[in-house]
Amino acid sequence: MVLGLAFKYYGDPICFPERAKLRKQREEKMQAYLDKRQELNSSYVRNKRARK
């Protein structure tokens, strides 16, 4: 049973293409979020340095 669950969640994307598609969408969404946060953080630091 443990082996079956491990294969289900970490298995080959060929066996579970819908999971691979969802994982790819989640990764893209997370990367877009991280890029946005990085941009906001860098502009915050830039503005904070400019005020001094």
Task: Summarize the structure in words.
It is a single chain. The chain is mostly helical. It has helices at 2-10, 17-51. The longest helix is centred in the middle third of the chain and has 35 residues, at 17-51.
Features:
mainly alpha, 52 residues
Gap from first CA to last CA: 61 Å
Number of helices: 2
What structural class results from the helix and strand content? mainly alpha
Given as residue ranges, the uncertain stretches (5+ residues, pLDDT < 50) are none
The description of the largest β-sheet is:
none
In round numbers, the mean pLDDT is: 83
- β-strand number: 0
**Share of residues in strands:** under 5%
Radius of gyration: 19 Å
Give the H and E element order: HH
Tertiary shape: rod-shaped
Helix content: over 70%
Short description:
The protein is 85% helix and 0% strand.
Spell out the blueprint of helices and strands.
Layout: H1 2-10, H2 17-51
